[in-house]
Amino acid sequence: MQNSLEEINSTVRYNDNYPFLKRLSAFIGPGLLIAVGYMDPGNWITSMSGGAKYGYVLLSVILLSSLMAMLLQSLSVRLGIASGMDLAQVTRRMTTKNKAVVAWIIAELAIMATDIAEIIGSAIALNLLFDIPLVIGVAITVADVFLLLLIMRLGFRKLEAVVGVLVFTILIIFVFEVYWSHPDAREILNGFVPQTAVLTNSGILYMALGIVGATIMPHNLYLHSSIVQTRQYNRDSNPSKKEAIRLATIDSNLQLSIAFLVNCLLLTLGAALFYGTHQSLGRFYELYRALKESHIAGPVGGGVMSTLFAVALLASGQNSTITGTLSGQIVMEGFINLRMKPWMRRLLTRLLAVIPVFFCLYFYGSSIANVEELLVFTQVFLSLALPLSIIPLLMATSKKQIMGEDFVNRRIINIIGWLSVVVLCVLNLYLIVETLLEVI
Fold it and tell me: In 3D, which of 380, 337, 406 has the Cα closest to residue 91?
């Protein structure tokens, strides 16, 4: 079996004899690409709407879902380094050829669904910032693929650096916006304490399920198990692999902590500006307009707040484009061993993703509201696809034949992992039913 992402596998310099901080810095990067999936445009509306409707009470739910994400991503790291395979390759090994093809199709559709959300986010951001028509904005997103290829030619570390700049752009913008919105610090701290209202109030419960159910993205598990292998640790040494797992897990938890902070900032911004105003914040344009018209946004004014929001949305969409195209390569090569030229594969993936968006624009009109309806259906499909990624991950990391005796999961990790699977599946099933009932 060929290496995962062979063109960049083991290309980042690393030496076990480096001082600790230099060893850690060599592993900083993959976690940034993973964190992107936890602060993508699809998560923004849920967090800000949750704050606007229910104040700070859902901060405890963001904390819980972030801890669950850290666990699953750490298992993905362990799988990639210990087995030398990514999740797609391992799943192919554990199943039959026909089932692998079905799993590949579902994984590709999940990546496409994620890509649709990023295309919509980027196109709306371009519309808000430059008044570019949505059709043209969607077409512009196709060019992102070639920008990615150009960056990749400069080296994987350059790609990680670009993603890092965009991630910290988003973080800084929302720190700035929350600062000027003057949130109640005491209420924020109280929000991290679980409250019975989350379970007893049906509206809060539904929003909480939305936050948890939409947090874990299937493509992130495939992506992380692959890109951790870009480091040049000793594949034949268990001590070296253990150290690589430790450093990669630190990187993952550090970057997911940034994603956790961004989601908390989003909810806090919604609560500080709009809680108690009875203002509907269901879509990107409504969020933008609400920020623009806000009269309590400090001396910087609502216009600056809304513009920065659109810039952050554009940065988020660009980040997610990068991770989505890489994930497409991983699942295609891992499940069915189909190899194409990088530019052709990434262009094909993006074109397949923009077709539903163009279809919506053509048949339902070029309004932002119509395009945003696609987000509902993409989230439903991601909920369906999620168990098909998590279950193989837990199964694989529990097998000595795949992981080796020194790297299999401890019993407590398996217990927590399978409980997380059950919780996520139940929550996602509930969300799917509720969403379909709303549509019907």
Answer: 337
